[in-house]
């Protein structure tokens, strides 16, 4: 009986998704293909550096392109429909569908311009890196049962520490080493107040952000700008081309022609994904985040596990902060994280509190941001301000439960008292 | 009186401590101070004078500056106080917006976005329509309140109908509002003729709030409106059925539900009011002080409001006093930066520390014994799913 209900809920969701997809295809036909006046050529460039060349570039008329990819999306929609009839998941056909609609969109939005596809994806990854670090920090905290609104502060502290130490020592490695510690220091504040003093974690995170923004901006104004050569001119990491892999068209320049920080990120993502679900550490983390009473009943010190994990989360976000200074620009500037900590939080939520989900969401948000920049240069019918809103809007849609049920770990944000009385 | 003293003691100690720590930060980042680190006595001397001068400049920039008097009446020295009060009015209203949400157990981080929509509404009515003198202000303020109440109420609606957590939704809506403001300032309706930068046409004279002490002092009736609203806030929460229900929901929503109170309606209603309050703040700022809408109109009112509500312990008197204090710090901080080159951001540090010390009474009472301490109920923890 219960099983049937589950299936019918899934079926309902699927049929709603199919309806949304149908509507999108129609919009794509009308808005991207039918309505525009005359057709202009769109050029997609694929080669960025010295990778092996398969296709140099591809030129297509904007109208014909929009028509063909809208048609392609209709085809994938039919596929998806047939899959749904059989009761299968929509996964692959839905992905292919989204890609077709997106290309149709690009044909419309970039009519008469040239788009570097590889550059677009590379830039998207670049912008997503701090988001991924940040959302992983949030993940470790929140899976352990501590809400982390202070991601912004952790990133900023990491950026500041890496920038200053990197400058003073003229060694980017020293900066990279210090950044995680700075992030962990912020985490120490978060953990102490959240766990020891049971302060509301949302308020706490907010206040910590204000504190870090205040301190780093103050120090930046008072010290860094007075003698920038000494305090604020860190050497930066150069990109490391991974032999052979970096030569692969499209993939190479995007993923394997990066700085050490990005390669560390790949490793961290893999470690967290595996350990969260396969190790004792991950099991304990999930236990204290979901049902701390049960965890304590088998002898786990809930608050100790939480405290340690919040510190680990700080290390991760702090390292991500280093990306802003020693990883890219070399100099620290006031509030240079510019709200990315909050988009990272959004990515965590949009990714349903799972590592791969958070990474995917962060990549999507980074890509959306890069797309906005690219399209604002080539000129596009959509105001760039609305493109900026995309991550925020999808997050609201996600938490409102329109795209499946998004649920936080059950005890996320609730302080634990020994004996489980809360 | 005793009650007030009891409520005020923790905030006062917290503020004192925050000033002290802020002083340490100022002192230890000063190159002249650090150069004397070898000799303890002169080090302490220059340390104290550096910090003292900074805080003196802060005071002069916030309340009374005798340097302004020269040749004029001694009243001229109160010019900074006028600036402080002007900035306190919107901060007060935003603080009340956050505070009323706290009463219903909601955390409204969205005051910033609601403020922006209020400012947009007031600005549009203010520059676009020709209306008689008193009516114009009323219409502009009404438009502001309606727009922002809808923006805030949307959060309550989502929370009530889908369970979407208000913190996440308001954070996202703040960014959306900020970008919406940028966009609308670029549209032909809002673009000031002959200008290309994001700047709306000036608000017409008929829509401006009257000033209280002549043209030299920008203090206007906005502060009275804010204080009256603070009184209404108290009345609503403590002398009405709706207020009782709101407090019941805030104290324990499942108990309130069992008692037959519609938590959904309270949630939506509270967020409507919270939005309206922040929107009123935006209107007062635009109609009373700035007279034009810019991309930076909202400043950081909506964010400072959260610290104001926390320092004010969620009560109207507390919020009024806290908003005056933080507005003074902001305004004075700018003078401090100009006069003694201590960056205004120290104010953020002080604000954050005050709230941190208050949020964790255990931290202070560990070292200082306070009798009959009222702990911060409004900061009791709830989870994402709560």
UniProtKB/TrEMBL annotation, chain A:
A GO CC term attached to the entry: plasma membrane
Keyword check for Nucleotide-binding: no
Transmembrane segments: 20-37, 57-82, 94-115, 121-140, 147-168, 174-195, 202-224, 255-277, 310-332, 338-365, 386-403
Alphabetized GO MF terms: transmembrane transporter activity
Subcellular location: Cell membrane
InterPro entries: ABC_transp_permease
Pfam families for the chain: BPD_transp_2
Bilayer disposition of the protein: Multi-pass membrane protein
Keyword Translocase: no
CDD domains reported for this sequence: TM_PBP1_transp_TpRbsC_like
Keywords linked to the UniProt accession: Cell membrane, Membrane, Transmembrane, Transmembrane helix
Name of the protein in question: Unannotated protein
TrEMBL record, chain B:
Subcellular localization, as worded in the UniProt entry: Cell membrane
Main location: membrane
Keyword Plastid recorded: no
InterPro entries attached to this UniProt entry: ABC_transp_permease
Any one GO MF annotation of this record: transmembrane transporter activity
Database matches in CDD domains: TM_PBP1_transp_TpRbsC_like
Membrane topology: Multi-pass membrane protein
Alphabetically ordered keywords of this record: Cell membrane, Membrane, Transmembrane, Transmembrane helix
Record-level GO cellular component terms: plasma membrane
Entry keyword annotation includes Electron transport: no
Transmembrane domains' residue ranges: 12-31, 43-64, 84-102, 109-127, 133-155, 167-186, 217-237, 266-288, 308-332, 344-364
PANTHER family in alphabetical order: ABC TRANSPORTER, PERMEASE PROTEIN (PTHR47089), GUANOSINE ABC TRANSPORTER PERMEASE PROTEIN NUPP (PTHR47089:SF1)
Record's protein name: Unannotated protein
Organism name: freshwater metagenome
